[in-house]
Amino acid sequence: MEKIRVIISNRQKAVKIPTGVRMLIRRCCHAVLQLEDFQDSAEISVSFVDNDQIREMNQQYRDKDAETDVLSFPMGENGNYDINHETGAKILGDIVISVPKAMEQARTYGHSLEREIGYLTAHSMLHLLGYDHENGGLARVRMREKEETVMRQLGLPSSSSYYDAD
Question: pTM score, two decimals?
């Protein structure tokens, strides 16, 4: 596999990011790219925000005035991506995670914050690679199966029943 660069920035002060979460996110990105047999160098940006920030972004980009757990901003379309001309890496896009929302969901589903952030990262990585679950059906099932495959590989299997993430 080629070089994978995951740029992580913490843009919130609501929650202290636990030790190991950044490494988990990197492992998660690698695992999804490996699962999808992505052979090129890649660049992914991951930002931690609070509920107000993600609500504002959800309103601005999706016209939904509500907090959400994660937003994905794919930079590619149909396998075509912008290239970082300094590194030659394909720029897959941006993942924005609301850490307070992830904490709330981890409590709701009875698992760790690490499991929740790992899941949200896997979910978003699939979006960056072109997967979509908005219309439900088989596409949603396939995406869910891939997310759980990655979570099992990372040693974070599901501790709760299926739930619907946006």
Answer: 0.91
